[in-house]
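Run log, item B.
One chain of 103 residues. Sequence copied directly from the ordering sheet:
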Amino acid sequence: MTQQTKMPEPVAYAIFAENGNIRLWSTEPCDLPDLDSLGPMHHLITTDQAEAYAAAKAREALEEAASIAGEKSAALPHYSGLTRGYAEGRAAAAAAIRALIPK
């Protein structure tokens, strides 16, 4: 399997009110017991970070799918014409999946 993409580091932290308004905003994580009553602290990332993370996760999934599609099956006898067609089909599927991976 490919290397796991990690979530980006937050650029800000916020606590939101029930109506969606921001109750508290900070560029540093706040770990104060008094804030617990305000609600959970949300870690915020930028749109660029979110897009890069999503692209990396999609790339991981496509690479894994291509790897699985490209594996040869040991279940079929190697002398069979069916095996050759099966292997060619899997190779074509792997190539099609790899073509979806952004460069």
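Observations after the first pass:
- The longest strand covers residues 12-16.
- The beta strands are 12-16, 22-26, 42-44.
Flagged for discussion on Thursday.
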